[in-house]
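queue> pop job 88
queue> type: inverse folding (structure -> sequence)
queue> payload:
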């Protein structure tokens, strides 16, 4: 298998390579939540699986609500019995991939771009995608005084979360579809693309330093609460309005050594998604409670209500859309054509789905042999 390599300068490669290490060293990239406030304790006397504990990672984002709610409501722990679940949160995909590589986490909720990068850079040796979690929840929001139509985006300054991240690739692809030119690495061209951490994007919008942003929820709705308008929902660009925004990955060695633990986490994920979809208001409140514990502040109704409605929670990893997103990264010049054969192993997920009376999901020909 040939590894994919980002087509960036050596200097940029060095910065990108060092960033996850810097984030982890500074404590910025991850935050332990195994303090009893967020992670339920294993039931006393419950039977342990093949591992004493399983370490999971996810973002404090609504697009990771399967993990937020599953941990908050004890749905994962119920399936794990006496095996303890230890949760950590991350602010960026590279830091979560670094934690996976280092063995700091075993299973993670993460976006498609870092999954692709993590898989290809390791020649397919460090991770597998084992399930889906969420679709949608990404919007182009703009200052309505400066941008009134899609054609007005040309010549403006638009933020994305990170160079080469899932939303950045999607925006660069959309720009190309308009016939406009932008240098992917510098972000300069017919549109000025500035990479801005989601935490500071609302302040950048308020200050007028950006005219809009292509961002996931709840950042998009935070901008709308500041007066921005939704110009485009990314789901409108995809067949059936579905595309992967969050999937579940696992360390390959952990999958091999502890398949029963991985299966239990997947069973918890499937049951969590079913509960979320059956109880949307209660699930929304649970996710917000989890976010409050992690960040110290709950999302206000004018942010969480529209954000929640734009996200679909699904067990299907929507594998065909991940392959398309990889093609978009190649088109933008951020990735050489990758070999993604083997990135998926949906065996355990489909076993769980069958037991729950649900249809099997497809790996779009990218499954492990």
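queue> result:
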């Amino acid at each position: 298998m040939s590894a994919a390599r980002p087509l960036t300068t050596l200097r940029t490669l060095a910065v990108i390579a060092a960033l996850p290490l810097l984030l982890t060293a500074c404590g910025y990239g991850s935050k332990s939540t195994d303090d009893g406030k967020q992670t339920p304790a294993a039931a006393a006397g419950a039977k342990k699986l093949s591992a004493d504990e399983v370490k999971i990672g996810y973002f404090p984002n609504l697009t990771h609500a399967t993990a937020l709610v599953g941990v908050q409501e004890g749905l994962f722990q119920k399936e794990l019995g006496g095996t303890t679940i230890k949760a950590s949160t991350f602010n960026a995909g590279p830091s979560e991939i670094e934690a996976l590589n280092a063995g700091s986490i075993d299973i993670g909720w993460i976006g498609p771009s870092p999954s692709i990068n993590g898989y290809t850079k390791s020649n397919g040796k460090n991770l597998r995608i084992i399930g889906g979690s969420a679709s949608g929840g990404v919007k182009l929001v703009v200052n309505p005084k400066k941008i009134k139509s899609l054609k007005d985006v040309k010549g403006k300054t638009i933020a994305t979360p990170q160079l080469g991240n899932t939303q950045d690739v999607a925006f660069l692809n959309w720009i190309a579809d308009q016939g406009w030119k932008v240098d992917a690495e510098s972000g300069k061209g017919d549109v000025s693309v500035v990479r801005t951490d989601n935490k500071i994007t609302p302040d950048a919008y308020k200050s007028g330093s950006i005219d809009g942003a292509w961002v996931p929820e709840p950042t998009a709705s935070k901008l709308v609460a500041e007066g921005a308008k939704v110009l485009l929902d990314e789901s409108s660009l995809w067949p059936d309005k579905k595309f992967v925004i969050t999937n579940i990955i696992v360390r390959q060695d952990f999958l091999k050594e502890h398949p029963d633990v991985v299966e239990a986490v997947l069973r918890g994920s499937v049951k969590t998604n079913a509960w979320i979809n059956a109880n949307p208001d209660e699930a929304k409140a649970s996710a917000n409670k989890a976010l409050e514990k992690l960040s110290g502040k709950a999302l206000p109704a004018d942010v969480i209500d529209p954000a929640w409605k734009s996200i679909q929670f699904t067990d299907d990893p929507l594998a065909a859309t991940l392959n398309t997103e990889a093609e978009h990264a190649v088109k933008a010049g951020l990735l050489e054509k990758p070999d993604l054969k083997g990135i998926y192993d949906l065996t355990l997920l489909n076993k769980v789905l069958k037991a729950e009376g649900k249809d099997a999901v497809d790996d779009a020909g990218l499954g492990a042999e």
